[in-house]
Amino acid sequence: MGTLFLVRHGQASFGAADYDQLSDLGHQQSVRLGEYFAHKGIRFDGLIAGTLRRHKQTLAGILQGMQHEGEHLSWEGLNEYDSEAVIATVHPQKLEKPTSPEMYRHHFRLLRDGLAQWMAGVVSPKGMPSYSDFVAGVAGALDHVRANHYGKNVLIVTSGGPISTAVGHVLGTSPETTIELNLRIRNSSITEFAFTPKRHMLVSYNAIPHLEDPQYASWVTYS
């Protein structure tokens, strides 16, 4: 049996001109997660990450916290969908930067609607793969882990969309459930799978044991 730890990137820069950049807190979350892994004696025989900047920065922070160095495999199929492109399929006008709770709720209502239509094949967001190809990119990473790392610990750093898609793929959930999983996932959270050469089995989802101490309560974020 092997163990796969899927980690969502640390807090990025929601609402900024460049979302694909960890905030200062996002970096702290990543280092703290690495410290947790080191404290638990968890070491990784395989390191895999999406190719986005926030994925690489999160992995670097984790390794810093673990006081560990290692080469990782870059996997483009673990990159996140383009939320702006998804929203544009149902709301062609450019959205203002959210500055109130209602504006945030409106943003995520549109995202939920756009995701549902993309997953159903109704819309094709500009510059994005079809949903079936998106799933295939995530499933390919899972297949790689099973084929090459049986009996070992593997760390994948990616985004909420690929993580929820991996869970949905393994459990056979509906698109609606996959969307809800996606929109509830926390920054730097851990989703754990046990795996054999034939299949993955979900152990836990969206866990943040490294942030459970009350002193880290303000470090729990979703974007």
TrEMBL record:
Domain of life the protein comes from: Bacteria
Keywords: Hydrolase
Protein biosynthesis recorded as keyword: no
GO MF annotations in UniProt: hydrolase activity
PANTHER family: PHOSPHOGLYCERATE MUTASE-RELATED, SERINE_THREONINE-PROTEIN PHOSPHATASE PGAM5, MITOCHONDRIAL
Name of this chain's protein: Histidine phosphatase family protein
Organism field: Caenimonas aquaedulcis
